[in-house]
Automatic annotation (TrEMBL):
<dbReference type="InterPro" id="IPR016039">
    <property type="entry name" value="Thiolase-like"/>
</dbReference>
<feature type="domain" description="Hydroxymethylglutaryl-coenzyme A synthase C-terminal">
    <location>
        <begin position="266"/>
        <end position="351"/>
    </location>
</feature>
<dbReference type="InterPro" id="IPR013528">
    <property type="entry name" value="HMG_CoA_synth_N"/>
</dbReference>
<feature type="domain" description="Hydroxymethylglutaryl-coenzyme A synthase N-terminal">
    <location>
        <begin position="4"/>
        <end position="166"/>
    </location>
</feature>
<dbReference type="Pfam" id="PF01154">
    <property type="entry name" value="HMG_CoA_synt_N"/>
</dbReference>
<comment type="similarity">
    <text>Belongs to the thiolase-like superfamily. HMG-CoA synthase family.</text>
</comment>
<dbReference type="InterPro" id="IPR013746">
    <property type="entry name" value="HMG_CoA_synt_C_dom"/>
</dbReference>
<keyword id="KW-0012">Acyltransferase</keyword>
<feature type="domain" description="Hydroxymethylglutaryl-coenzyme A synthase C-terminal">
    <location>
        <begin position="175"/>
        <end position="253"/>
    </location>
</feature>
<dbReference type="Pfam" id="PF08540">
    <property type="entry name" value="HMG_CoA_synt_C"/>
</dbReference>
<keyword id="KW-0808">Transferase</keyword>
<dbReference type="GO" id="GO:0004421">
    <property type="term" value="F:hydroxymethylglutaryl-CoA synthase activity"/>
</dbReference>
<dbReference type="InterPro" id="IPR011554">
    <property type="entry name" value="HMG_CoA_synthase_prok"/>
</dbReference>
<protein>
    <submittedName>
        <fullName>Hydroxymethylglutaryl-CoA synthase</fullName>
        <ecNumber>2.3.3.10</ecNumber>
    </submittedName>
</protein>
Amino acid sequence: MTVSVGIDKIGFYTPSLYLDMAELATARGEDPNKYLIGIGQSKQAVIPPTQDIVTMAANAASQILTPALKAEVAMVLFGTESGIDNSKASAVYLAHLLGLSPKTRAIEVKQACYGATAGLQLAADYVRVHPQAKVLVIGADVARYGLRTAGEVTQGGGAVAMLVTADPQILTLDMVSSYHTEDVMDFWRPTYRTEALVDGKYSTNVYLDFFKTVWADYQQQTNRTIVDFDAFVFHLPFTKMGRKGLRQILPEAQPDQQKSLKAAFEASQEDNRNVGNLYTGSLYLSLLSLLRHGQLTAGARLGFFSYGSGAEGEFFSGILQPNYQRGFDGAALTTLLAQRKRVSVAEYEDIYRAQLSNDSRDVQLPVGEEVAQYYLAGRQNQQRQYREQ
Ligand code: CAA
């Protein structure tokens, strides 16, 4: 008998600062509605130098790992575009910070915004073969395009942590999925750069084309059609992108279903609208947002479109489980988002420039205002100094 495998728990972390998108629009000489409606973003996470992908991942993972679970994690698969080292995996730093058992396998997975999906599917296959195993999958990034660039409004950052197990509480993954790879230069980041290079309009077109391709292939493989779905969850670099994706397939549904799919989309974009782009974590923040704000019942089939520039697309699906509400702490997430401090555009620009420099100097970061459990205190002897409070 095949074991049912999928997402048992989800944790999420984003730093304690945000920038208001209407304020940014005004500062950049744009109509605020371009950002609020045209792009579909209201707030953007601002990442202080004291947070990086490792600390954000630790802050997300610590929400879902009890001491007993920490001892049981067989593997850590860390999806990220914002790696902090060209050799050593962020998963190794993370495993140490969290106090995981040394009997764990810890690696980093890279393919732009697709890394966490690769991690999730590899984890699911591993658990199908080893049903007792628990795998920690991370999607953590700092989405960084540059001050006064077209991509600036689509920045953000944070981490999603998922525990993949047999008989999961939140979602069982269907075994079938459809994926597609093409060598496309829509978004990339050479190792000498801290900001992505992007052909913005082209990237949005490739996203939509890839969605069309994998959705058609998935339907062919499964004989399922849109009527078999209760909601679609999209990679959301900005919320308008997923809205365009959904619009592409809505005509395949009857009017009643169109209404419910649109309502589910509104729920799925709510939290992303207030955090911004997490690159590889965005799809899974959108899932969390749907679970928090949507009206789904157990047994619902959800469709997922994952996209990572460069480019890789995947469509996969899963079934919502009866106790899905127990798999995440919705109240903690509401508090995390509500307690963030708004920074002005000038403060955001200062913080943007204050990131840990790309050189070998020793640095002590201003950690006095840091409220997160895990943070970065600086760099000594070319080693990042991670701390827990
Ligand atoms: N009121 C309402 N809407 C307005 C408006 C106003 N006053 N002014 C403009 N708009 C609308 C425009 O009509 C447009 O809507 P449509 O796309 O529906 O036509 C929207 O606002 C955006 O306007 P522009 O196209 O003029 O915006 P832009 O040229 O400044 O750039 C962008 C938009 C290309 C997305 C840019 O922000 C960018 O390059 N972002 C980074 C790349 C990106 O996120 N790509 C997504 C796919 S790649 C991916 O998914 C991987 C990843 O995470 C990086």
